[in-house]
Each structure stands twice: as C-alpha cells, then as structure tokens.
Amino acid sequence: MTSDDMDGIFGKNHSLLITNVVVDTKKVDIVIDEKGIITSVGEMAGKAWKGDEDFLIDGNGALALPGLVNTHTHAAMTLLRGYADDMILQDWLSQKIWPLEAHLKPEDIYWATKLACIEMIRSGTTAFNDMYFMMDQAAKAVNETGIRAVLSYGFIDLFNAEKREAECKATENLAAHIKSLDNPRITAAVGPHAIYTVSPEGLKWCAEFAQQQKIGIHIHLSETEKEVTDCVATHGKRPAAHLDSCGILTPRTVAAHCCWLDDAECRLLGERGVSAAHNPVSNMKLATNRAMPYADLKAAGANTCLGTDGCASNNNLDMLEEMKVAAILQKFFWNNPTVLPAPEALAMASANGAKALGLPTGRLVAGVPADIILVSNRDACNIPLHNATSNLVYSTNGGSVETTICNGRVLMLDRGIPDEAYVLNGAAEAAVALVERAQSG
Ligand SMILES: C[C@H]1O[C@@H](n2cnc3c(O)ncnc32)[C@H](O)[C@@H]1O
Ligand SMILES: [Zn+2]
C-alpha cells in the first residue's frame, strides 16, 4: 500500500488512502480510487488498514475539507498584482489596468495563469471561475497544473456593432476550443463583462449562446453606485432588471459583486436561481461603499458564493482569507454580529461555489470526484481545536494548507509543489517584460 517513493505520487491518478484526518468533528480515513473518486470517508481512525492503495498519506490530524471554489477571478491578473492600487474603480480600469492589458501577449496569459494556479493550489483552491482574454492559454495552464476551471472570454463590445461581431467570434472560438480539449476539469462559460461595457444586443447574444451551448454565464453586476445610476439613466431600469430583460439571469449565471442590489433585485436573483459571488476584499479595496446584501440574497433563494476577483484588486487568491473577510465585513456593514456565521462562510467557499459552477464537487462524500485539501491544525493559529469550522474561517489562512488534491490527483503534498520555482520565475519575467513593453509604447 505505501510506496517509499512519495515523489511518484505527483502527475497521475493513483489509489490513495488518507489516514488520521478530521472531517467536521470526526477523525476519519479517506479512500480515493485510481479514477479519482472518493470511495469512502470512514470512521476508521487508528485502524491498521490492510488495503492495497498505491499511496498512504498520513494526515497527522489535519482538517480535511472539500477543495475551495473561487467563483470570481481574472486569474492572469497575477501579472498586474501591485501595479495599480489605491484608486477608484473607473480610473483604475481606464487609466491603469486596461492600458496595460492592451500590451498582454498570449505567453503572458499562460505564465500568469500558471502562477495563479500555483497560488490557488498552495492556498487550498481546487476550482476557479475565470473571465479574461486569450483564454486558450489559460486552458493550457489549467491543464498542466491539474486544477479545475470554468473559463470565459471577457466579452466587451463597448456598444459597437463591429466589435460585437469580433467578441461573439472570440466567445464561440473559446467554447469550441474547450470542447475539443475534452478535459473534465475544464469547462467553458460566456463572459459578458458588465452592463457598462456590453450592449443590450451583446448581452442578448451571450444569453442565447450560453443557453444553446448549455454553459454558464459570468458577469460583473452592480459593483458600484455609479453603475446603478448610469443604468437607470441609460436603460430606464436598474441593472438586475436590465440583465433580466436580456435573458442573462439564469440558474447557470454567476453574478460577481452584487453590492448595490435593492430588495426587489435580490428577490429577482433568487427567483432566477442566480449565484451571487461575494468579493469582499476587492469591494473593500476599491471602496464600492456597500457590501453585498448577503442575508437578503440568501433569504431570497439566491446561491451565495465567494470570489477573490483579480490580483490587482485584492491582491492575492487566498480563499481562506476571503472567507474571514466576508464573515466580518457582513457583520460590520450590516451592524449585526450574527450575519454570515462561520458554517455559512465555509459553505460559500465550497459547496455553494461548486453548485454555482455546476461542479459535482464541494462535499466530502463517497462517489464524488476527490477535490480535497488538508489544512494543518498544528500551526499556532489553529490551536486549540474547540471548533474546526471556526478555526478555518476566523483564524487560519492559505498558508496552513498542507496538501491539495484535485480530481484524485495530488497537486501539493506537505506544502511541496513540483516545478513551483520554474513557474514563479517565468511569471516574474513575463511581468517585467509586460511593463517594459507598455512603457516603451
Ligand atoms: C475581464 C476584464 O475585467 C476587468 N476587471 C478586473 N477587475 C474588475 C472589476 O472589479 N470590475 C470590473 N472589471 C474588472 C479586467 O481588468 C479585464 O479587463
Ligand atoms: Zn472582476
């Protein structure tokens, strides 16, 4: 069962036995078959297994939980981390971010997305919802790193018919490319950027294409008060109603931010079964000046999930940190310490996130793909263990993740990731070259 050569554990599927871990409050062992499916989460702690698994991982008392699901990011923005901080959203986008993005090359997207995947694996994320550009390169990076992703092209027609045609083509091409990969870890979605960058015709095309392809929709919604007032002035209705009139609000839709929704819009998102992705760190850093109305959205039946947004407005991809900020921001902003209790924050980052992306993961039960992370409870910040969920939400962070498994394949073991340094160097060099190109025009 146990192989001396643990290095051989990386790179392909094996049958695995993970012993001596804590799930919720119970000490259990977990068995994963060579197809990457959890076959048992058993109360077998302490029993000497006589199984014939290829590898045994001694969890040494670590907390085992479903891999975290980042339901809103722009992964390749790792290359823009720290490039522009301390600005309001529209200036940040128009004066700094979009001008630099104009100089991005395909290899930049590859290196930046690989860096993002390494950062997510290291901090316990096993699936992410991405919206960016040159996404064939993102797919290449995701395929190589072993993580799970829903990839959408950032559709921006700027209300121009000619540009809209090109955006539709790019969206169709990405969907066809991802279908051709036939990789169960990589799925496509449609990514209309926002109501202030996509025409109603563009939104309607995106909604129809998503329905025809049976894929998801990923959009920014009501991030700022200006977005709402401009929408009412332009379209005569609030953003959620405008999106609904274009067919965008569906059970396959992830709406990111949702800061400035009113009660009627919360009810509309609930009625349509939309997933509302809360990005508390980005919202606070860009000063959106209102927190997502989490309790109203949850009460209305919307699926509340969690995202980091991109690394230029966070500036990391640590979903354990994001959970904590979500739980305390909601308490602070709505002036109620009972809002978003720890178990609900953990659900946002795991089961709800998997539901938002249509993934079979998000729970540690037999019969589902093994997306599992082990979080040390031997770090000072995680001792004592009165309440594992409390520790996961309020005291630990991504640095305490020891082992990350996605689709049954070990991506990180005891904090070691193969080829990590090579990826970090490649991305660092790409970032320097990008800024040099931008500066030389
Ligand atoms: C895909 C495009 O979206 C841009 N972007 C990154 N973060 C945000 C945000 O918080 N709101 C709106 N748009 C955002 C990114 O730079 C790409 O241009
Ligand atoms: Zn975003």
TrEMBL record:
The keyword Hydrolase applies. SUPFAM superfamilies: Composite domain of metallo-dependent hydrolases, Metallo-dependent hydrolases. Binds 1 zinc ion per subunit. Its cofactor is Zn(2+). GO terms for molecular function: 5'-deoxyadenosine deaminase activity; 5'-methylthioadenosine deaminase activity; adenosine deaminase activity; metal ion binding; S-adenosylhomocysteine deaminase activity. It comes from the Archaea. Residues 64-410 form the Amidohydrolase-related domain. Keywords: Hydrolase, Metal-binding, Zinc. GO terms for biological process: S-adenosylmethionine biosynthetic process. Its EC number is 3.5.4.41, 3.5.4.31, 3.5.4.4, 3.5.4.28. Pathway: Amino-acid biosynthesis; S-adenosyl-L-methionine biosynthesis. Zn(2+) binds at H72, H74, H220, D309. It catalyses: adenosine + H2O + H(+) = inosine + NH4(+); S-methyl-5'-thioadenosine + H2O + H(+) = S-methyl-5'-thioinosine + NH4(+); S-adenosyl-L-homocysteine + H2O + H(+) = S-inosyl-L-homocysteine + NH4(+); 5'-deoxyadenosine + H2O + H(+) = 5'-deoxyinosine + NH4(+). Catalyzes the deamination of three SAM-derived enzymatic products, namely 5'-deoxyadenosine, S-adenosyl-L-homocysteine, and 5'-methylthioadenosine, to produce the inosine analogs. Can also deaminate adenosine. The preferred substrate for this enzyme is 5'-deoxyadenosine, but all these substrates are efficiently deaminated. Likely functions in a S-adenosyl-L-methionine (SAM) recycling pathway from S-adenosyl-L-homocysteine (SAH) produced from SAM-dependent methylation reactions. PANTHER family: AMIDOHYDROLASE-RELATED DOMAIN-CONTAINING PROTEIN, AMINOHYDROLASE SSNA-RELATED. Belongs to the metallo-dependent hydrolases superfamily. MTA/SAH deaminase family. SAH is a product of SAM methyltransferases and is known to be a feedback inhibitor of these enzymes. As a result of this inhibition, organisms have evolved efficient enzymes to metabolize SAH via different pathways. The pathway found in methanogens differs from the canonical pathway, it uses the deamination of S-adenosyl-L-homocysteine to form S-inosyl-L-homocysteine for the regeneration of SAM from S-adenosyl-L-homocysteine. 5'-deoxyadenosine is a radical SAM enzyme reaction product which strongly inhibits radical SAM enzymes. Homotetramer. This is 5'-deoxyadenosine deaminase. The gene is dadD.
